[in-house]
User: Which sequence fits this backbone?
């Protein structure tokens, strides 16, 4: 059973960089052809896809956040990370990491999610 | 970006009711649509993928249909656990986008 767990600071000051790590257990992040994504949810609002990491190196980011986002991987720890720079109060949200199945063989969809990490941007 | 519009935003129903939630895409997305259920304080849970395929372990009272730009999620007989929020998500064109959510409330 695959499990994902987010970790990182719950409070970040404006203009600083938000950093979160997702630890994956029950499966290797570098095998299986899955996409490893970050998704956020503003308090009481809907879901926003941030971007993905694929095949231990390829990334794709939501254009709305692209200039501020970096997703990276540490295969030795079976972790992937999110960095979001120059944060403002508008970046206050619950951040989820999730595994997405490829469309071709397994028809897609985010099938495993972390429990979510609330990050508040405030001085 | 492909805009996903769900209706209604809130739905009031009773236990045992059959309910339908609609999701419309701003452009055609084929069948590349997923439905998720989110309980308060929890991560979303995948219910339906590729518009109509039931995810393993999901009760058969949930079903999905549609293609192109119009999709539906149907719950054939509402159970107490189903009174939560549902989201659609397209994965035909990047960036992936979600609907704004439909909250199912007890009437």
Assistant:
């Amino acid at each position: 059973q695959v499990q994902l767990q987010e970790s990182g600071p719950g409070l970040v000051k404006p203009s600083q960089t938000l950093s979160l790590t997702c630890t994956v257990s029950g499966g290797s992040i570098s095998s299986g052809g899955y996409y490893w994504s970050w998704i956020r949810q503003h308090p009481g609002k809907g879901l926003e896809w941030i971007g993905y990491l694929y095949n231990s190196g390829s990334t794709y980011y939501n254009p709305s956040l692209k200039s501020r986002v970096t997703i990276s991987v540490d295969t030795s720890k079976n972790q992937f990370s999110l960095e979001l720079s120059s944060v403002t109060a508008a970046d206050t949200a619950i951040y989820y990491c999730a595994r997405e199945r490829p469309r071709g063989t397994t028809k897609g969809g985010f099938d495993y999610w972390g429990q979510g990490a609330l990050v508040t941007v405030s001085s | 970006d492909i805009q996903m519009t769900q209706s209604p935003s809130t739905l009031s129903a009773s236990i045992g009711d059959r309910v339908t939630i609609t999701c419309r895409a701003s452009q055609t997305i084929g069948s590349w649509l997923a439905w998720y259920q989110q309980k308060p304080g929890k991560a979303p849970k995948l219910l339906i993928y590729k518009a109509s395929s039931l995810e393993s372990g999901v009760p058969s009272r949930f079903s999905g249909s549609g293609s192109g730009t119009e999709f539906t999620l149907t719950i054939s007989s509402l159970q107490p656990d189903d009174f939560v929020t549902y989201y659609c998500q397209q994965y035909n064109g990047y960036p992936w986008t979600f609907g704004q959510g439909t909250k199912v409330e007890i009437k």
About this structure: Chain A touches chain B at residues 46-49, 60, 62-64, 96, 98, 100-101, 103, 107-111, 113-116 (CB under 8 Å). Chain A has a mean pLDDT of 94. The first strand of chain A starts at residue 3 and ends at 7.
